Structures are given as C-alpha cells and as structure tokens.
Amino acid sequence: MQRNSMKPQNTVAASLRPVAFVYIAINLAVVALLISTVSPTLATVPAHAGSQEMASLR
User: Fold this and answer.
1) Neighbouring residues of 8: CB distance < 8 A, sequence distance ≥ 6
2) Which residues cross the membrane (predicted)?
C-alpha cells in the first residue's frame, strides 16, 4: 500500500489560520482601546477629594 504523500494534509490548519489572525487583530484592538482610555492623572487625585465633593452635593 502506497500513501499519497504528495498532497498536503493540513487543510484544517490552513482554513483556521485567517480566523486566528482576525482573533489576534481584534484582541490587539481591544488592548489598544483599553490602554487609550486609561488616564495617567487618575492616580494623582487625592483620595479625600471625592468624599468632599459628595458631601457638598448633599
């Protein structure tokens, strides 16, 4: 018995490759969006400033 070794057998891998690239691209876009929404000034606001603002609203 001779097997047909000339034809590649990775058809599933070849069909999933574009899906993997799209998945990676979407993940990178989500990471970029999350990083762009983080403000570096949030950590420098004093903790008691929010409580004073809430007290003045009451």
Assistant:
1) 14
2) 20-38
pTM, two decimals, is: 0.51
* Separation CA 42–CA 50 (nearest Å): 12
User: 12 burial class (0-12, 13-18, 19+ CB within 10 angstroms)?
Assistant: exposed
Low-confidence ranges of the chain (pLDDT < 70): 1-8, 40-58
Rounded distance, CA 49 to CA 37, Å? 22
- pLDDT for 4-16, tens place per residue? 666 667 788 888 9
Q: What is the CA radius of gyration of the chain?
A: 27
Task: Report helix, strand or coil for 21.
Answer: helix
